[in-house]
Specification:
The protein has 13 helices and four strands. With 354 residues, it is mainly α.
Length: 354
């Protein structure tokens, strides 16, 4: 679809091409958010009709559902890079989304209301997120490195390992939920709907997510490439900037809305758990499947982005050890995100490769 849209708009005047790219990005983002809701709701109803525990539904289907926008965008960019190009949007989307989830999403949530952190989160979830993030950094920055061009890569073998780990993680969630049901807040009762409607909405939701992902990649890459050419900037740096900012924020909208509303309603654990779970799924599920479809390569600037992702994860862990995320923690997280955005803009404009 991306190639067809590119061919269709290739002969248009530059002004109309930019309009098409912006429209693709906006419409694609709306598709991702809206059809993700349809998919998750309908899939949850089907699982409930199949007598699957609401607890398991919440830990698996819903958790994976919030990562579907990132998956759609990253896989679409992975496929688009089959001709030998870089998958800057794919890798940038995952790394940028994880940074955005901690600094922007959680930052906003904590500013609204402090979050009490359970000891179990510091014992299990945060160490697990930190370890998985460290593994992601190792995979991005060490293995698959091209010594001639300096490009970084996530190989297909690494992608398969990540996919295997997400299967193990889901298995762990299910077993732990059955052993410690008191530690998990059961999902609210789902609205009943006919079988045919649930199946139709699952299909429509999946199709909408796929189309939305294609539109976002078309719009994001178009804006980055046209902007780079027009301003004399490095194309790979421009693509990386768009993937780490516009696309990352757009695909993080489900988490942002969910966490902010949960925080305003006083459901603090949901706000924190949503961020932790989403980041784990992004690294294992999204990055793993995308790299399995096609090995992902990107410029050496990703080293800094991956290290920033690691640093903010450790920062969150340190904050959680205090037992409570306070408002000043939220302002620190938001301030860090502002500084990171300034760095990304300067890196793109000045052509830094670090």
């Amino acid at each position: 679809m991306v190639e067809l849209l590119n061919k269709w708009t290739s002969g248009w005047p530059v002004g109309w091409q930019i309009v098409a790219f912006v429209a693709g990005l906006v419409v694609g983002t709306v598709f991702l958010v809206k059809f993700c809701d349809y998919f998750v709701d309908a899939a949850s109803v089907i699982a409930q009709k199949l007598k699957i525990s609401p607890l398991i539904i919440g830990l698996t289907i819903v958790a994976m559902g919030t990562s579907l926008p990132e998956l759609a965008v990253s896989v679409s960019d992975s496929i688009a890079a089959l001709d030998g190009g870089h998958a800057n949007v794919a890798i940038g989307n995952v790394v940028g989304s994880n940074i955005c989830n901690i600094l922007l999403v959680l930052g906003f949530s904590v500013v609204f209301t402090p979050i009490v952190v359970k000891k179990s989160i510091c014992r299990r979830e945060m160490p697990m997120l930190t370890g998985i993030t460290a593994l992601g950094v190792v995979f991005i920055c060490l293995f698959g490195l091209n010594s001639v061009t300096g490009d970084f890569a996530i190989t297909r073998a690494e992608g398969i390992i990540l996919v295997a780990l997400i299967v193990a993680y889901i298995t762990y969630l299910v077993i732990n939920a059955k052993r410690h049901p008191e530690e998990v807040d059961p999902a609210q009762a789902l609205k009943d709907m006919p079988w045919w409607k649930a199946i139709v909405l699952v299909i429509v939701g999946a199709a909408g997510i796929i189309i939305g992902g294609q539109l976002v990649v078309f719009g994001a890459k178009g804006i980055a490439i046209d902007g780079a050419v027009g301003l004399g900037l490095d194309k790979n740096l421009a693509e990386s900037l768009v993937g780490l900012t516009i696309v990352a924020v757009g695909t993080s909208l489900p988490e942002l809305v969910t966490s902010t509303i949960a925080a305003k309603k006083g459901q603090n654990e949901i706000a924190l758990g949503n961020v932790i779970g989403s980041n784990i799924f992004n690294l294992l599920f999204v990055l793993g499947i995308s790299a399995t479809v096609n090995p992902l390569t990107t410029g050496k600037q990703v080293l800094v982005d991956a290290l920033v992702m690691m640093a903010v994860t450790v920062l969150l862990f340190v904050f959680c050890l205090s037992g409570k995320l306070r408002k000043w923690h939220g302002f620190v997280l938001l301030g860090c995100y502002a500084l990171y955005l300034i760095y990304l803009i300067l890196r793109t404009v000045l052509g830094w490769n670090f």
